[in-house]
Amino acid sequence: MRRTVIISFIMFAFSLAGQGKEKRPKALKPIVVEIVSGNGHETKRAEVAYSKTITALEALLRVAEVKTHPLGSYVFVTEIDNIKAERGKMAWYYKINGKSPKRLAISQTVNPGDTISWRFVKDVCSEKADEFKKPQNCN
User: Cβ distance 81 to 64 under 8 Å?
Assistant: First the structure.
């Protein structure tokens, strides 16, 4: 009888331990933010904790010094870590997992494990933004 009680207690303990594991939420992969400015600057990579509503711009703000410029209903990134965009020449554009999202970073939400790559490249968008039209091919 005593042996049966001990075995029953051990089985009960294991069943409780298994239940605890099922209730724990799975950890979501962090977002990776990559800043590639070129001109001899080292690429900066940092991880940001994922949240349901985090945008590409919010993730960038958590890992770098950032300046933005509002223009109508748009918000453009004009400087990252003291590297300033120069209108009509060089600008900051981003991609998520290697693809242009076709949305401004302020309204582009991201998913767990996404990599957001900010690159300092030739400006192809300033003139379109001046017209207050939805920027096309601006990422």
Answer: yes
Q: Which one, of 78, 84, 82, lies nearest residue 125 by Cα?
A: 78
Q: How far apart are CA 10 and CA 5, in angstroms?
A: 9
- The ranges assigned to domains in the chain are 31-130
Report the SS3 class of residue 16.
helix
DSSP codes of every residue in 56-71:
HHHHHHHHS-EEEEEE
Beta strands across the sheet bearing 83-84: 66-71, 74-80, 83-84
Instruction: Specify the pTM.
Output: 0.73
Structure-token match 């003291």, residue found: 82
State the chain's maximal CA–CA distance in angstroms. Answer: 86
Considering only the top CATH level, what class is 31-130?
A: mainly beta
pLDDT exceeding 70 applies to what percent of the chain? 72
